[in-house]
Structures are given as C-alpha cells and as structure tokens.
Amino acid sequence: MALDLNTKAIKKNAYRITKERGKTALRVRVPGGALEAKYLTLLQEIAEEYGNGQLHITTRQGFELPGIPFEKIDEINKKIKPIIQGLELDYGVDIENPEAGYPAAGTRNVSACIGNKVCQFANYNTTEFARRIEKAIFPNDYHVKIALTGCPNDCIKAHMQDFGIIGMSDPQYEADRCIGCEACVKNCKRRVTGALSMVNGKVKRDERRCIGCGECVLKCPTAAWTRNPEKFYKLLIMGRTGKKNPRLAMPFLEWVDEDTIIKVIVNTYEYIDQFIDRTLPKEHIGYIVDRTGYQVFKEYALKGVELGPKVKVSEYINFGGYKYEKDAFMDQL
Amino acid sequence: MGYRLQNNDFNELLKELSKEYKLYAPKRFEKRGRFSDTDSVRYGEIQRVEEIDYTVKSHFSPKEIVYPITQTLFYFTEEEYRESQVHDKKILVFLRPCDINGMRRLDTIFLENGPYKDVYFERLREKVKFVMMECKESFENCFCVSMGSNFTDHYSMAVRFEEGSVLCDVKDKDLQSQFVDNKKESNFTPEYVQENNIKVEVPDAEKITPALFEHDLWKDYAKRCIGCGRCNMVCMTCSCFTTQDIAYEDNPKAGERRRVWAGCHVDKFTDMAGGHSFRKDYGSRMRFKTMHKIYDYNKRFGEHMCVGCGRCDDICPEYISFSTCIKKVNQILKEGNHEE
Amino acid sequence: MKNNPLIPHKAKIIEVTAQTDIDITYKVESDLQPENGQFVQVSIPRVGEAPISISDFGGGYIEMTIRKVGSLTNEIYTLKPGDDLFLRGPYGKGFPLEQYKGKHLIIAAGGTGLAPVKSIINYFYRNPEEVARFDVLMGFKSPEDILFQPEIDQWAEKFNTTLTVDSATEDWKGNTGLITKFVADITIEDMDNVEVVIVGPPIMMKFTSLEFLKRGVPKEKIWVSFERKMSCAIGKCGHCKIDETYVCLEGPVFNYTKAETLID
C-alpha cells in the first residue's frame, strides 16, 4: 500500500519529514539536558532495530534517531513509553496517552547547562528548574525556545533563546570577616564587570554594575562573601538565530524569582495565542513581539504577576541584531 | 564527674550557662557555602545542642572566637584615641582535641613570643573555657595522631553527643555546680582518635639544611599554588595579621586602627613601602609555610605548630595536600638527594 | 587595658630637614634612649603605621629619616615643626656598640642604610679616641640621593670616608661605582681587631659582605641590619619572621653568622 501520511500530525508527534523518502526521525526531549543513563539502552535498541543505528545529539540537548520507516511510528511510540514516563510524566507533565508518543513538538526541549549539580560557577540547579518549566508549558504547539544557564558565563547560550534564564547570586558581605586580600576585587575587575572596589581596607560593591555571577563568593578565602540563600535570576527574551534577523536576547527582568519566571512564560503563551499570525504555517514568538512591540508583550507577560522588591524590569528594549536588507521588515500592502 | 543529660536537659543547662557565658560551637550555615546550594560549617553562637554540627569537621577553626578576623585596636577622634572594648561575658567553646591543642600554639605566639603579651588576644582568651567534643573517628585529611594533637585533657568539660542525649565529663568547678541537682550521673571518659588514615612522619630538625629550601619540590608548588590563602585562613594555628588605619568616609577626622588576619600565601604579605618584597613566587610561600608548621616553630618553641587537623587540605581549591607535602619533604631528606 | 604595647605616644616634631627631594629627617621630642640601630613604629592615626629606623638620638630627642614612598610617608611629608608624630618602641636589637670600641671599625652604608648607622658614626665622631681606626664607606644612587651631606663633610675631617655614587653626570667630581668596588681600598691591618657594619638594600648587603669575606674578614666580625615589613614589632604579626627568627625581636641587626642562615 502506498504511503499516505498526515505530515502535520506526524510533525506534531515529534517525528521529522526527512530528505529520505519513506524515512522519518524520532525526536526525544530531554528536559534540563540530563537523564538517567539507563534510557540510553532503550534509545540504542530503537535506533538499531528501527532506525539506521545512529543517534544524533541535537543542539537543544535532545536525541534524534534517524532512518526510521514511517510505518513504525505507532510501534515506536509504544516502545518509548518508559522515556515519556521518566522524562515527562515523572516531572509532572500532563500527557494523556503515554503510549502515543509526544503530543506536541512546537515548544522545543527546555535545555540547560550542567548547573550546580556539578559546576562550581552555577548559581542554581538548572536541570530542576528546566523540568519545572517543562511541566508548566508542555505539551504546547507554539514555537518557543527556552534554555537555562547557571551563571552569566552563559554556556548554554541563553542569549540565543526566546527565553534565556541566567542564574544570579545575591552576594552578601560580612565586613568583619574580610581580610582585605582583594581576591574578589581583582577577579571582578579582570573577569567580570569591576563592580567591586576597596574602600578603607574593605570591599564596596556597586550594585548597578554587579551582575550576580557569584565569583566574589567563590574567591573569598574567609567566607566574608556568601550567597543569599534566596535564588534570583535574569530573564532574557527574544534572542534568535534564523534567516531574517538574528540577534541576541535582551534582559527583560533582573533579580527575579523562579515562580515569576514561570508565570511570565505561561502568560506569554496567552499572548501568542492572542497575536499569532494564523495565516502562516508557524510563527516564531520573536516575530510576534516585533509586530506588537515590546510594550504589548510586557503588558501580557506581567499580567497578574507580583514582582519582588529587588526586581528590575526593562522599560524599553532595542533588540538590534542585523538584517540583510534595509527593507527586510517592509511589506507592500 | 560523668553525667548523661537528655537533650532537653542539656538545653536547660546551656540556657543557664548562657547567662554567664557566650556559647560557641560549630554550626551549619545553610546555603552559605562557597558553591551554590552548599552549606558552610563554622563557629557561631548557639543556644541549643541541636544547633551544634558535630557530624563534620568545621570548615573554619575556632580561632576566630579568640582572635577575630577583624579586630579594632583603637578608635581615633580628632584629638584622642580610645581602645576598643569587648563584651563582659565569659566564653564557652565546643571544640575538638586538635583545636584545643592548636589554641596552645596561639597562646604561645600571642602571649609568650617576645617581651610583651598581646593584650587584645589575652582579653578574649582569658574568658575561654573549653568544652571538648569527643572525637573518636578521623575525618578525611586528618593526621592529628602523627602530630600528637589527637589527645588533650585540657578541658573544662568533655561531651559525647548521642542520639537524644549528651554525655558529659565535667572537670571545671564552676560548671560542676550546674550539675549538682542532677541525679544523672553516668560513667563517661572521652575517647580519642587512635589512628588516622593519613600518617606523616615529621622530619628531624637537624636533617633540614638550606639545600632543602632550594629544592625543586617548591618549584612544583610554584606552578600549582594560586596564592589564595585559604589554607592560612582555615588553619587553627596561622596567626599572622596586618594592621590597617582607616579614616571614616563620612567623617575623615575620625577613624580607627584595626588588625585583620593575614597569610603568608597571600600577595602583599611581605611588601615593603618602596616596592621591595620577599617570596614573590608561590612555591617559596609554600616552603615558608611548611617550614613554619613543621620545623622552625618547633625550633623556637619546642613543639610543632601544625596540629594535623587537615583543614588546609579540605579547602585547597588546587588539591594541594599539606600532609603529602610533609611526606615529600621527609622522603627527600631520607633519600639525602637534597644535598646536591 | 594595662600594658597595651600597641599604644603609641605623641612626639612633637622639633625640626624638619630635607635631605633629598624625597628623604626628610624629622627630629622629634622624645625621652627614648634607644640602642644604635633600633627602630620605632611611627604612625599618623587614621593613615597608618610603619617601622622606621632611628637615625640619631640625644638628650630629649630622637631623629628619623623617612623616605616618601607610600601613603603614610606621603602624609608625614606634609608635617611641619610643631606637628605630632605617634611613636611606639624602640624595638629590636641594635648594634653592639660596646663591642666596637677600641676596634678598627668599618661601616659600609648604601642609600637609606646610612640612617640606622649614623648614630654610631656620630658617637665615634664625638668620641674618636674610643675607636682604633674608622673607615666609612657610603654609596648612593646619584649625587641627588646623598643623605646627611653636612655630616658626611664633618666626618671626613676625622675618619677615612669614601663617598661614591652609582652614576652621575660629568660635573660630579667624586667617586662613581658600587660600594663593593671600594672595599679593596680599605687597609685592614689586623683581621682579629676589625668590625664591619654593612647596611643597605638586601643585594648591596649580600655582595658587600662577600667582598669583605674575600678580604679575609671573619664572618663573626660582620654585622648587617635587615629591613622587613613589621606590622606589630612585638613578635606577633608574623610579617618579619625568617625561619625561627623574628627580625623585630632578634634583629634588625644580625651578626653575619646568623644572617647568612636566614632564608626568606
């Protein structure tokens, strides 16, 4: 029987229409970029039994298993149930039928750097936060990319995402514990933003220059600098690659907490729902913000959100980036 | 005399004692560690036995109780200066045998070295009574047995923490009086660490010659040490300080003279006005510290400075192990290949 | 607190004498009776404290020669007669002056190293009969760096003095070259009756000592003075410790036999 496929349904099910006729590729989400190694055995099995034996690691920290015949989709969906269970349902994601594969593919895998499970620099557990976000937004068809990074080094490239989350430490200083060795001051000047200076043998922190990287805490030999146990984040928005206008994400909120970020992201889906151009096969969130303007986005994103006392919100954002033609955003009506 | 007190009775005792004493013990400062979501265990004031974290080795030593990291010596006004004051309570410190032995090293430097006593140290030190926390099991990096600091009977009270109760051996008469009404006598003699995983043999002083000072061993440390000074700061016996004069920002006519901890690994330790300094490379700083801890202090005062608590090894971000350094020195001297 | 050794006392400045552009001698009122070569901790409250060697002393005064090299000395530089300095000390062990009496004394001083030995030279200048023979070797970087010029001129009347500068322009008529160059010119008749005092920068003391050793002067006849960054000057702060020796307590003056064992 000739192949007769609903490609839209297949794509929504996290399978790709590939260049090789008759063959698809399964895309596996790994929220937070970490998984128990045992799942690799199952992926190996599927790749070898149904695919071409290859397992591609995606830029968003998922796996892609190419060379799979379209006919095998239902069978594979049943097979990957343990992965849906372990990497989605167990995080609290609501999936009606875990034997039918992924129910959506628009919102991409929430990726994360290794975070403070391992890295000395990271200011929080990026994986855990990523899984919380996954629970809040998945499944969803809208095209949104989210990544979390532990510190402003931004190893995950949060600056290339629709939502980039950077961990911030609120450094707290106990002057009496400081010996004036200047380790923090020298390091901040050399490697960070020069937010610290010596005044009268003790350290002064310029809050406006401090980006909350937490390096002063790392450098301090006497624990004069410690982290506020409360966690804070910087939320970057609307970075993108793509053909039309690549650009870095820009700060939207600083010194914001985890719950607020989740609310803002959830609100954004309502904003998309309101403003997306439904004449297009899909529209990327960043271009919607281009059309409505930042202020409208901001209004929707912050709906019902109570911002903490430390939070700073961007009044205005000049996203910049570059365009190939001066009329890239011009249309003949 | 030995007693067993249930935790709530022990807490009553602490409450009673706190009228007269400030109570210091190692406690856990949650999420205040160097890395995010890690804790810091260091000395602080406590009210209840549950606050005492005896399950791990404190990251910092108790020296900061008698020798604060920052200590104001004088306050200056335009025409006068006034000595800083201290609280009028006595001090009770919960600490392990190695740290009690370390305290004697601080006493030696501050009270016996040179013709004058350090009165700022003395005024806190003379308030202190030790509550020895029994320490039977060696922690990682400990080598107290090799340094002879695993044992002490210099304490006012010794305690063993058990599930829900505390065993006490009380020697101090004043403290003893708190136990009189307590018909909770129990045999308790504290035990001590008998053996550490890490054992070092400290080389004989007469074997150490200037050739050792020039040995390539130190050049290796020059490449590894980053001069952060953490080893100095966590050390129970590092006692160096630097004096600072400051004028207050809001009133430059007033100010203070204070001292802060200093460390031989940290830059500027030997800088002199005019630009000259000594031991610029980190290897010679490692050599300087090592010799102080296991050689020259002993030559001057008759016991080794290092008490083998191993905190320097616990903290070093570059995984430089001091006990391994002692072993290397000993090996070099044994092989005799330092006299080239 | 009783017996607080860190308390400084006020000392009124009597006289300020510029030696060079950056070296100034301060004569202050003081009842201290230091040994030659001892030092005091000098401070200006709110600015800082530093060890400074006593360059001379007498009835009711001591004198210090201070080079402007940091925040404290910059501040001291602005003081005038009638202003106060704050002192504590004197500290350390000085030169064994008694041991030098009746001997052939040689003093080699480089730069500011002349300050801690000036009181010895002046002592024997006042009491020339107490020394068998006296040679003074003085080296400075340039003619502009020469300290105590009037006193140097006086000393030349009574002793063999050699003044040299490392380098100078053509109009300099005196000696040029490092001090070490002039060690060979000194006549030493009896190696057992000589005492050599060498004070200056570490490198100068090292090489000048070697020159005298080459001449056959026994190690135990050579004396040097160390400069270190004392913070407390009473054996606590650790800054001046070398091996088991505290420069503030056992020094700053050392016999060469001890000094040669001190590795920083």
Automatic annotation (TrEMBL), chain A:
Keyword set, alphabetical order: 4Fe-4S, Heme, Iron, Iron-sulfur, Metal-binding, Oxidoreductase
SUPFAM superfamilies to which the protein is assigned, alphabetical: 4Fe-4S ferredoxins, Nitrite and sulphite reductase 4Fe-4S domain-like, Nitrite/Sulfite reductase N-terminal domain-like
Highest taxon of source: Bacteria
Cytoplasm keyword on record: no
Residues covered by the 4Fe-4S ferredoxin-type domain: 169-198, 201-230
Keyword field contains Magnesium: no
PROSITE patterns (UniProt xref): 4FE4S_FER_1, 4FE4S_FER_2, NIR_SIR
UniProt record similarity statement: Belongs to the nitrite and sulfite reductase 4Fe-4S domain family.
Full protein name: Anaerobic sulfite reductase subunit C
UniProtKB/TrEMBL annotation, chain B:
Keyword Iron-sulfur in annotation: yes
Residues covered by the 4Fe-4S ferredoxin-type domain: 215-246, 297-325
Keywords carried by this UniProt record: Iron, Iron-sulfur, Metal-binding
SUPFAM superfamilies tied to this protein: alpha-helical ferredoxin
Superkingdom to which the source organism belongs: Bacteria
Annotated PANTHER family: ANAEROBIC SULFITE REDUCTASE SUBUNIT A
Name this polypeptide is given: Anaerobic sulfite reductase subunit A
Annotated source species: Alkaliphilus hydrothermalis
TrEMBL record, chain C:
Pfam families: DHODB_Fe-S_bind, NAD_binding_1
Domain FAD-binding FR-type: 6-97
Xref: InterPro entries: Cyt_c3_hydrogenase_gsu (IPR012165), Dihydroorotate_DH_Fe-S-bd (IPR019480), FAD-bd_FR_type (IPR017927), FNR_nucleotide-bd (IPR039261), OxRdtase_FAD/NAD-bd (IPR001433), PyrK_electron_transfer (IPR050353), Riboflavin_synthase-like_b-brl (IPR017938), Sulphite_reductase_B (IPR014260)
Domain of life: Bacteria
Protein name listed in UniProt: Anaerobic sulfite reductase subunit B
Organism field: Alkaliphilus hydrothermalis
